Amino acid sequence: MATPLSDTPLSLMKIAVVGLGTMGTGIAEVLVQAGREVVGIDIGEAQVARALAALESSTARSVERGRLTGTERTEALARLRTSTDLAAAADADLVIEVVPESYETKHQIFRELDGVVRPEAILATGTNALSVTRLAADSARPERVLGLHFFNPAPAMKLVEVVSSVLTAPQVVAAVTDLALALGKEPVAVGDRPGFVADGLLFGYLNQAAAMYESRYASREDIDAAMRLGCGLPMGPLALLDLIGIDTARTVLDAMYAESRDRLHAPAPILKQLSEAGLTGRKSGRGFYTYEAPGSATVVPDPLTPAADGAGVPGREVRSVGVAGSGTMASGIAEVFAKAGYDVVLAARSEEKAGAAKARIGKSLARSVDKGRLTAEAAAQTLERITPAGSYDAFADVDLAVEAVAEDLEVKRQLFQSLDKVCKPGAVLATTTSSLPVVACARATSRPQDVIGMHFFNPAPAMKLVEVVRTVLTADDVHATVHEVCRKVRKHAVDCGDRAGFIVNALLFPYLNNAVKMVEEHYATLDDIDAAMRLGGGYPMGPFELLDVVGLDVSLAIEKVLHREFRDPGLAPAPLLEHLVAAGCLGRKTGRGFREYARR
């Protein structure tokens, strides 16, 4: 019979951690440093010894870095005892299990705990993939069972997902939430579904990256560099899969797919192949990358490592560059080339627009001077290299023409027809499109072999990434030319084929779309989802912050292109996004998107 819960606040001072792997050891460290009495339990003496050694080492580093005093370390370690017997949890107020992701293993732990712990004890599972409700239903006290999902490394990561099932008592949720706050964590309340918020969004993205690599669309290095440099992520998706464990990722995705039946969650076959071959990532010494040794973070060259730059077909000489357009992207690209010493012709539909674009560059350079990033002399020289023009006829002598006009295929096709007539033979013609087919621009000319995509990211002077998009018609020396130019302007070029979204948008926008679907389904709030992805995923901005910055209309347009190209139902734009765009709520630029903003 379930034990009635009183209204008296539950005190969680004695805590048992079951499973002393990396996560369990990290949780134990957080708890003892916060003044809790902890018993760490694992079935193996060797694992217990490793956990103690790891805890002693990590707390010693904290003392060296000034985060703990020697006395605080001694007191914290004294609050931890260990055992290989689950009966050691008998007097615990809270038990947190962090054993391997297996229903059978976790069920066994919970059944044994039912016969060990006090009736008023709370049982928490650290799962990130399995159903908390299913685990609770088999417990003698389902109202006292919930999920408590820490993120790795637990001492450093601020996010904790507090997962309620339909059976969980509110007082239990409140007690565990208070504990998370006392530990200095930021708890996010979520319901019970595989992956919860952070992993639910993260693993779909990781899965798509694995599938992208498996299709040989882009190299592992380029996929990872694109997401680091294009989105400001601390790690690329394939390196992150290696860190998490490819077998673990496959388990999470299997659980997500079993519930959602969304193809985006169906594990990419390469995850199964690597897992079954024992190539599970860093822990085995090899996954998507090869490592110095099992457990090492040091990547070593292997047969898939790209050759050093400089080999292959030589590029064409580029001394002068034409930039077509008068918006923020065009002026940013012109600034990038001029700073690198190129003579730049900045052409727009009128002299006035071109002059205004050059004036915008002047202001940008002045800000760089004010911030000490550029000398006044260098800024003046950069501005002098830019010649504004009211006609594309001014591109007659440029070696490279880069268009940055409106993201409209017919507008771009007409522009490429003009460039074909104006530009000299041998000039490279580049489009900065982020979502349209580069080959359609190429086919508008009589020299499709000279056309390539150069997708800069906004703001172009600050963002280091350029996606180099080669069509089936692009000449080898044109591809080589663009890579040489990217090196000279100090941008990191990544190669990809001519398909919707290229690398970054093809991986980013399905993730954003899935976040919108979570809100539509009332699974979590905007604030909780944004917090979860910043704190648990290392994203510089939460998905709704980013959507409002990018513009909901721009985001919807890209998502429609992706859906049209790949025909995947899971890529269909979320209705909520379509409704907001229809209502004119486009984000920061209109003062209202997913959130409201003060009008300037």
From TrEMBL:
UniProt keyword Nucleotide-binding, yes or no: no
Domain of life: Bacteria
Stretches assigned to the 3-hydroxyacyl-CoA dehydrogenase C-terminal domain: 195-291, 501-597
Positions of transmembrane segments: none
Domain 3-hydroxyacyl-CoA dehydrogenase NAD binding per the UniProt entry, residue ranges: 14-192, 321-498
GO biological process: fatty acid beta-oxidation
Protein name (database record): 3-hydroxybutyryl-CoA dehydrogenase
Species name: Streptomyces malaysiense
